C-alpha cells in the first residue's frame, strides 16, 4: 500500500509543477501517460496491450492490461497471454481465445520501475519547461523586460525574471557606464532567443536601438497611440542619440510631445540610458532638409545631395564646422547613421566653389595620414586648410609644426602657380 501511495504522489508532484510552470492540464495528462507507457514498454517490450487512464480531477490513475486467454499448457508470453485457470479467477465465464482485462498496480512492478518513471517524468518535464521558455521569450523579442541581477561575470550578467528563468545581458550589450550589483533590477530589451540543442538562451540588450524606441513608447503616450511615429534612430550608447519623429496629426508637435514640458518626458529616458544625450528632430522625406536637421545644432550654408549614391556635400561657415562634426566626431557620425547618407563637411570659403581643390588631389605630395588628420577637423579642400591659421592647424589637427609648414607651402604654391598662369 505504501508503494502505491508513493506512486500516486507523483501526480501531486506534477500538479505542483503545473502551478509553478504554467503547464496546461491536457499537456500534463499526455506527459504522464507517455511516461507510464515508456516505462512499461522498457519492461515488457511493448505497451500496446495496456490502457492508461488518468483522472486529473481526482488526481489518480489506473493501468489496465489486456491479455488473450490460452490453454494452461500453451502459455508463451505472460505479458500478452493468460492461462485459462488464471483467467477464470478474474472472469469465471471466460473461455480460451477471449480477451481478459485486469488492473495492474504500478507499484507492484518494483522500485526500479518507480525510479525509472520518475526519471522519465523529470526528463519530459524539463523538455516542456524549455519549450515553454523558448516560446514565451520568442514572442517577447523587441519588448522591454525587467529582471534581477543574480550573478555578475566579466563578460556578461546573469539575470532572473519573476519566474526564476535565466536571462543573459552580455557586456557588449551594456551601456559603457552600466554598473550593477546582485539583487538590483535591470531593464533591457529582449534582443534574440537562441535554442541550440533545445537549450534556450535569452539575450538582452541595453544598447540596441529598439531599447531606445520602446522607452519612447513607454514615456510618450502619443507614440504608443500611433499619433507620432519614430521614423529613424541613430545611437552611440551612453554618449549620444538622434531620433527622427513624424506626426500624423497636424495639431501635434512631434518634437515637443517627445521632449515634454520642461523636458519631463525625455529626462526619464536619459536617466535610464545613463545620461545619454538625445536629440529629437522632425522627420522629412526631403533628403536635403533631413540632412540639415540631422546636423543640428550646426547651421548649413549650402548642400549638394547625390540621391543615387546616397552622398551629400555640406558647406558651412568656419565657426559652424566644429558644431557639425561634434565632440569626437559624434554629431556627423550620428547624422550619417540617421539619414543613411555619407556626409562630407566643407568650409564655405568665399570664391572656393570652382577654384578650390580637394585634398585627395595632393596624395603624391602629402602623406595620406596627414590628409586624414585634416579631414577629421572638417578640412576637405585646399582653401579650407589655408583659411585656418598655422597655430590652429597645429593645435586642432595635432600635427607637428614642420608638417603643417610643408602642407601650407604645397597648397599655397598650387594657387600661386594657377594665378601666374
TrEMBL record:
Residue stretches making up the Transcription factor NusA N-terminal domain: 10-131
GO BP terms, alphabetized: DNA-templated transcription termination; transcription antitermination
InterPro entries: DNA_repair_Rad51/TF_NusA_a-hlx (IPR010995), KH_dom-like_a/b (IPR015946), KH_NusA_2nd (IPR058582), KH_sf_prok-type (IPR009019), NA-bd_OB-fold (IPR012340), NusA_N_sf (IPR036555), S1_domain (IPR003029), TF_NusA (IPR010213)
A GO cellular component annotation in the UniProt record: cytosol
Main location: cytoplasm
Domain of life of the source: Bacteria
CDD domains the record matches: KH-II_NusA_rpt1, KH-II_NusA_rpt2, S1_NusA
Coiled coil residues, start to end: none
Domain Transcription factor NusA first KH: 206-283
Cell location: Cytoplasm
This protein's UniProt keywords: Cytoplasm, Elongation factor, Protein biosynthesis, RNA-binding, Transcription, Transcription antitermination, Transcription regulation, Transcription termination
NusA-like second KH domain mapped to chain residues: 289-348
A GO MF label: DNA-binding transcription factor activity
Domain named S1 motif: residues: 138-199
Function: Participates in both transcription termination and antitermination.
Record-stated family: Belongs to the NusA family.
Protein name: Transcription termination/antitermination protein NusA
